[in-house]
C-alpha cells in the first residue's frame, strides 16, 4: 500500500497548509523530507502523554467529506538530521578550513571538458575557463577567462552561532541529481573583468560534496547570473567532517487522530485501499470513477503477438474518420514556420542562463531576462545584410545549396556585424543553417540549437520538415526572390 500513502500525503499536506496557524513557525514539513501517515482513532489521541506532545505540533485537517483530524507534525527541519549527527564534530570542533588547507597543499587540478570550453579548477589557486586548438603539433589558447582566485580571507566562517549560542557548521545545501545534499562552499573572487557588467569581476563558488569514492571530479557547472558561476565537486577529503556525509534517507511519521470514535482513516482512503485490494485479486480489471460520479469497470487482456495483426486491421478502419493529435500538431508547426519565414514571428531557444532569439531577415541575439528587475541583458550575434551574405557565400562555395533542388537538405545564411568581441577585436557573426528533416518520427517539431565553434563565431541551426519547400525554392546564393538584392 506504499503508493497510496505517498499519493495521499501530497493531498493531505496541501490541505493542511491552508489550516496551519500562521503564528507557528516550527513545523518541519519540507520538500526533501518524506513522511509516512499513521491514522489513529480518537482514543489514541486521548492517550498521548505530555512528553510526546512536546516534540510535535498539532495542525487541524479537514477532508472534503468534512472529516476532522488532528495531525501531529514533528518539530524540526531537514537541517536537524545533519545537526544530530554533528555531536562528535561539535565536541571536537573540527575546522573545515583546516581540512581544506591540507587538501590545497596537494596542489591538484580538476578539469571539466565540454563541447567548446574547458574548465580548470586548481584547488586553492584559481578557476579558469578556456578554449584550445591544436595547430602544427602546438596547443593554442584562443579564449581564456579566469573565473576567480582563492583568497583565504574572503571565506565564510566554519561555524555560525545560533540564538541559543550553540555553534552549528557552515553548510550550503545544493541539489545534485534531484537530491538535497550538504556541501562546503569555497569562494574564488577577482576574476577576469566582465564584459557585460562594467567594473565587475567574475567570481565563482565551488561547492564540495562528500563522496567516499570521489576523485575531486567537477560534476556540475552553471552560470547563475552574468559573470557569477557555481561549480559542484565531489571529493573524499570533505567526508572527514561528519556533517557533510550524506546519511541514509529516513521516513518520519505524521500521526493523525480522528474526531470520530469509530473511523480512524478518511473515507476516501478506505475506498482507495479497497480498490487496490480488488486489483490484486483481479489484475485484469480496473475500476474508475469520472467527475460526474459514474463508476466504470474496465476489463482488459494481455495482447499476444497473434492478436496484434487483427487489432491493426480494426485500427486502420477507424483512423480514416479521425483527425489525430499528430496532424493537429503538424498544422500548428507549419504555421509557426510560415510566420517565422515571413518575418512576422521570432523563434527562441536555449535552456540555461542565456537564451537565444532569431528573427528571420532581421537579427540573431543572446539574452537573459531578469525576473526581479524585469530588465533584459542581450548580446547581438548578427544582423541580416544581404551584401555581406553574398560576399561570404562567394568565398565559400561549399555553403551554396545543392543542385538539383530535390537533393537539398539545408541552406545557410550569414548574419554579420554583431556586437564587438573584446577577445578577437572583431564583430560577432553567426551562420544560420536551415535544415530539412524528412521521414522522422518527431517530424512535427521545430528543432533549434546554438553552438560556438570558435570564439565569438556561432552556428545556429533550425530544423523542421516545413523548411523543405523553402530550401528547394532558394537560388544559388541561398536566397528567395524577396531577399535578393
Task: Give a quick set of tags describing it.
11 helices; alpha+beta; single chain; 8-stranded mixed beta sheet; 485 residues
Explain how this protein is built:
There is one protein chain. By secondary structure, the chain is α+β, with helices and mostly antiparallel strands. It is 23% helix and 36% strand. The strands form six sheets. Strands 4, 5, 6, 7, 10, 11, 12, 13 and 14 form a nine-stranded mixed beta sheet that branches. The protein has an eight-stranded mixed beta sheet with strand order 18-19-20-21-22-25-27-26. The N terminus is likely disordered.
Mean pLDDT: 76
Task: Assign an overall shape.
Answer: flat
| SS content category | alpha+beta
Helix content: 10-25%
Oligomer: single chain
Radius of gyration (Å): 31 Å
Major sheet summary line: 9 strands, mixed
User: In percent terms, what proportion of residues is strand?
Assistant: 35-45%
Between the first and last Cα atoms, what is the distance in angstroms? 71 Å
Number of strands: 27
Q: Could you give a quick summary of the protein structure above?
A:
By secondary structure, the protein is an alpha+beta fold. It is 23% helix and 36% strand.
Amino acid at each position: 500500500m506504499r503508493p497510496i500513502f505517498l499519493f495521499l500525503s501530497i493531498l493531505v499536506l496541501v490541505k493542511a497548509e491552508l489550516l496551519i496557524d500562521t503564528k507557528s513557525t516550527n513545523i518541519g514539513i519540507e520538500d526533501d523530507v518524506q513522511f509516512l501517515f499513521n491514522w489513529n482513532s480518537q482514543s489514541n489521541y486521548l492517550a498521548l502523554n505530555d512528553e510526546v506532545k512536546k516534540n510535535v505540533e498539532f495542525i487541524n485537517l479537514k477532508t472534503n467529506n468534512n472529516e476532522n483530524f488532528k495531525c501531529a507534525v514533528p518539530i524540526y527541519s531537514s537541517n536537524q538530521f545533519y545537526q544530530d549527527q554533528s555531536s562528535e564534530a561539535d565536541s571536537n570542533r573540527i575546522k573545515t578550513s583546516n581540512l581544506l588547507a591540507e587538501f590545497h597543499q596537494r596542489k591538484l587540478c580538476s578539469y571539466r571538458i565540454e563541447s567548446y570550453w574547458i574548465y580548470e579548477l586548481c584547488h586553492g589557486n584559481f578557476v579558469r575557463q578556456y578554449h584550445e586548438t591544436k595547430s602544427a603539433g602546438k596547443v593554442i589558447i584562443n579564449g581564456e577567462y579566469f573565473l576567480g582566485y582563492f583568497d583565504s580571507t574572503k571565506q565564510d566562517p566554519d561555524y555560525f552561532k545560533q540564538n541559543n549560542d550553540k555553534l552549528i557548521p557552515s553548510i550550503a545545501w545544493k541539489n545534485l541529481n534531484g537530491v538535497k545534499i550538504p556541501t562546503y562552499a569555497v569562494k574564488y573572487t577577482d576574476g577576469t573583468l566582465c564584459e557585460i557588467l562594467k567594473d565587475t569581476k567574475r567570481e565563482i563558488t565551488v561547492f564540495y560534496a562528500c563522496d567516499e569514492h570521489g576523485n575531486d571530479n567537477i560534476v556540475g557547472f552553471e552560470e547563475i547570473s552574468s559573470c557569477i558561476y557555481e561549480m559542484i565537486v565531489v571529493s573524499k577529503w570533505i567526508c572527514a567532517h561528519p556533517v557533510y556525509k550524506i546519511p541514509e534517507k529516513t521516513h518520519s511519521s505524521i500521526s493523525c487522530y480522528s474526531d470520530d470514535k469509530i473511523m480512524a482513516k478518511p473515507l476516501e482512503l478506505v475506498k482507495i485501499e479497497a480498490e487496490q485490494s480488488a486489483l490484486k485479486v483481479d489484475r485484469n480489471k480496473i475500476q474508475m470513477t469520472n467527475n460526474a460520479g459514474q463508476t466504470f469497470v474496465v476489463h482488459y487482456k494481455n495482447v499476444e503477438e497473434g492478436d496484434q495483426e487483427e487489432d491493426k486491421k480494426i485500427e486502420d478502419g477507424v483512423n480514416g474518420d479521425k483527425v489525430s493529435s499528430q496532424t493537429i500538431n503538424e498544422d500548428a508547426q507549419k504555421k509557426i514556420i510560415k510566420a517565422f519565414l515571413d518575418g512576422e514571428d521570432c523563434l527562441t531557444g536555449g535552456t540555461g542562463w542565456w537564451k537565444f532569439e532569431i528573427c528571420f531577415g532581421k537579427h540573431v541575439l543572446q539574452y537573459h531576462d531578469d525576473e526581479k528587475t524585469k530588465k533584459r541583458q542581450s548580446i547581438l550575434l548578427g544582423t541580416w545584410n544581404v551584401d555581406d551574405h553574398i560576399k561570404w557565400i562567394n568565398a565559400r562555395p561549399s555553403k551554396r545549396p545543392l543542385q538539383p533542388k530535390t537533393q537539398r537538405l539545408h541552406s545557410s545564411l550569414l548574419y554579420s556585424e554583431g556586437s564587438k568581441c573584446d577577445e578577437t577585436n572583431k564583430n560577432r557573426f553567426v551562420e544560420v543553417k536551415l535544415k530539412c528533416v524528412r521521414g522522422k518520427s518527431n517530424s512535427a517539431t521545430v528543432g533549434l540549437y546554438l553552438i560556438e565553434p570558435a570564439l565569438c563565431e556561432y552556428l545556429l541551426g533550425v530544423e523542421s520538415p516545413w523548411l523543405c519547400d523553402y530550401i528547394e525554392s532558394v537560388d544559388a546564393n541561398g536566397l528567395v526572390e524577396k531577399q535578393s538584392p
